[in-house]
User: Fold this.
Amino acid sequence: MIFVGTMMCDEGDFDKCVEAILSQKNVIVHHEIIKNLPEKEAHNQLWDSWNDFKSQNSNSIFVKIDADTVLINENVLDTIQSLFENNSRLTGIQAYLKDFYTEDLIYGLNCFSSKVVFNQTIDPLMCDRNVDTNHDVVIRGTDLPTALNPAAYHCYSSTNLQSFHYGVHRSLKGQKDTLSKVKRAWIRSGDDRRLWALLGDKFSYCFDKKKGFNYNDKKLLEIFEFCKSN
Assistant:
């Protein structure tokens, strides 16, 4: 069985995300949706939900599919499940996504065997860094079958607030190369959502790395509204 974990805060891609999960073939899916929590709290609730689930389903697989991510076809989860079934040492998969903002491939769709142990998230910004432990074999990117390159679309139905949040996050995480790609994609292809991401980068100095940058945080919403009115 596959445990799919999704955290959502009104992302514009959410309905398509759920539709794609429900359309997957040849797999049994338990879909856990965590709604409208700050990122750190949402991640910790997701780890706890997965731990509870695998205690009753010891051979299950955990696939983290965020609400801004839409699986590319109806066979993605079946392909992932087959990889785990055919390699008893495989504990992790990190597949590429096709990202709207950069028009490029980014990591990632993250998948885990039940052997992986999750620690509680402490960092409110880098919520999924250094939390999964007890790995053996991990396969990433182009080492995966072509059917998973990419495995999903990222942010193709994003909202303006989602785009602004994307830019703030990438800037606070120091992902300047990513933001440069966003700028080049905006110059090349346009779209106001890319401009909103660049505005998020521009106004990221208003935030620190510990607070204020979640979707429902007052500070993020105030600065977003300021940008809308100017």
